[in-house]
UniProtKB/TrEMBL annotation:
GO terms for molecular function: enzyme regulator activity. Belongs to the cytochrome c oxidase subunit 6A family. It comes from Ceratodon purpureus (Fire moss). It comes from the Eukaryota. InterPro entries: Cyt_c_oxidase_su6a (IPR001349), Cyt_c_oxidase_su6a_sf (IPR036418). The keyword Transmembrane does not apply. GO terms for cellular component: mitochondrial inner membrane. PANTHER family: CYTOCHROME C OXIDASE POLYPEPTIDE VIA, CYTOCHROME C OXIDASE SUBUNIT. Keywords: Membrane, Mitochondrion, Mitochondrion inner membrane, Transit peptide. It is found in: Mitochondrion inner membrane. Pfam families: COX6A (PF02046). This is Uncharacterized protein.
Length: 110
């Protein structure tokens, strides 16, 4: 096993060093290579398209919001009082009212 490791390490160490162009720092690399400059034109068209879509969506949302807010308000839904609702066999520890119910007028705070 030690022999195989030495052979592999020897092969790695005997290779010639990488070219100097691969060892440059980020500051030294200033030129970027692209396949073409056609991307700028396509990007401008995409930007204009999505700007138009966004503006149309804003106008649509504002219009729908104004339409909904200016509509008449609907009346309260009439609740049917059934005999089995609000049966209290025992008082709540916090008083005669439930946690999510309206206060009774005859109930006094102590």
């Amino acid at each position: 096993m030690a022999n195989a490791l030495r052979q592999r390490l020897g092969a790695l160490l005997s290779r010639p060093p990488a070219p100097a162009s691969l060892h440059t720092t980020g500051a030294a690399v200033t030129k970027r290579f692209f396949a073409s400059k056609a991307h700028a034109h396509d990007d401008a068209e995409e930007t204009a398209k999505w700007r138009s879509i966004t503006i149309a969506a804003y106008v649509l949302c504002i219009g729908m919001g104004a339409y909904i807010l200016t509509h008449e308000e609907h009346g309260q839904i009439e609740r049917t009082e059934y005999s089995y609702l609000h049966i209290r066999n025992k008082e709540f520890p916090w008083g005669p009212d439930g946690l999510f119910e309206y206060k009774h007028e005859d109930h006094e705070e102590h």
